[in-house]
């Protein structure tokens, strides 16, 4: 029930969520997909959450991991952190705290300190899911926002179309070949024609990024 509630709440907050109901399914999903972050319960059927975490780190996979568990003993927290977790949250927890801790581990994994993302006159605040241009608020659809977030989190790098599709849709459903191009077009219209550069045959990058 808690898993259902967390997945539903995260989806409402704009996250694409894949849920694995046991340790074996979790290990398989983490091999097959590149996730932005992992919420990991320790008490899983068919194995321990720590086993999943140990296997993840043994492959040198640096995906941020936030443990969520009812185990509140200091020894459990130490064991989880030493196994490679980035943070540890004890049930029950406020949903707002879960989201804040997710944002924090993502910032650390990306080498960022400030929670705000900036590119020229464009400012994106992940905590409020708000975007401004030269101080004026800009209304974006959910998919436009996710596309912009993926590009701003990858400043300095070209972002492939496949990666953008995965970030926007979470690898679910059938996606038209020009879908990301449509969102990029809308972002250019709302935020400036020169904001996003097309790298033909691969994907996109923010203007001015090498």
Automatic annotation (TrEMBL):
Subcellular location: Cytoplasm
InterPro entries to which the protein is assigned, alphabetical: CheY-like_superfamily (IPR011006), OmpR/PhoB-type_DNA-bd (IPR001867), Sig_transdc_resp-reg_receiver (IPR001789), WalR-like (IPR039420), WH-like_DNA-bd_sf (IPR036388)
Domain (Response regulatory): residue spans on this chain: 1-106
Sites of 4-aspartylphosphate modification: 41
GO BP annotation list: regulation of DNA-templated transcription
Record-linked SUPFAM superfamilies: CheY-like
UniProt entry keywords in alphabetical sequence: Cytoplasm, DNA-binding, Phosphoprotein, Transcription, Transcription regulation, Two-component regulatory system
Any one cellular-component term (Gene Ontology): cytosol
Residue stretches making up the OmpR/PhoB-type domain: 114-208
GO MF annotation terms: phosphorelay response regulator activity; transcription cis-regulatory region binding
Signal peptide: none
Chain residues forming the annotated DNA-binding region: 114-208
A Pfam family recorded for this sequence: Response_reg
Identification of the protein by name: Two-component regulatory system, response regulator protein
Lineage: Bacteria, Pseudomonadati, Pseudomonadota, Gammaproteobacteria, Lysobacterales
């Amino acid at each position: 029930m808690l898993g259902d509630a967390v997945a539903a709440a995260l989806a409402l907050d704009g996250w694409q969520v894949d849920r694995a109901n046991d340790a074996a399914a979790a290990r398989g999903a983490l091999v097959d997909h590149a996730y932005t972050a992992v919420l990991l319960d320790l008490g899983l059927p068919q194995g321990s959450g720590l086993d999943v975490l140990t296997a993840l780190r043994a492959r040198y996979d640096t995906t941020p991991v936030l443990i969520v568990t009812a185990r509140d003993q200091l020894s459990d927290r130490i064991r989880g952190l030493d196994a490679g977790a980035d943070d540890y949250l004890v049930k029950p927890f406020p949903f707002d705290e879960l989201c804040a801790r997710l944002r924090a581990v993502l910032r650390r994994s990306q080498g960022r300190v400030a929670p705000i993302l900036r590119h020229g006159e464009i400012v994106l605040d992940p905590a409020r899911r708000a975007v401004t241009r030269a101080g004026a608020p800009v209304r974006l659809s959910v998919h436009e926002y996710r596309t912009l977030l993926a590009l701003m989190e990858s400043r300095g790098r070209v972002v492939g179309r496949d990666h953008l599709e995965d970030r926007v849709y979470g690898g679910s459903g059938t996606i038209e070949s020009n879908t990301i191009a449509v969102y990029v077009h809308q972002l250019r219209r709302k935020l400036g024609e020169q904001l996003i550069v097309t790298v033909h045959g691969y994907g996109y990058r923010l203007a001015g990024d090498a």
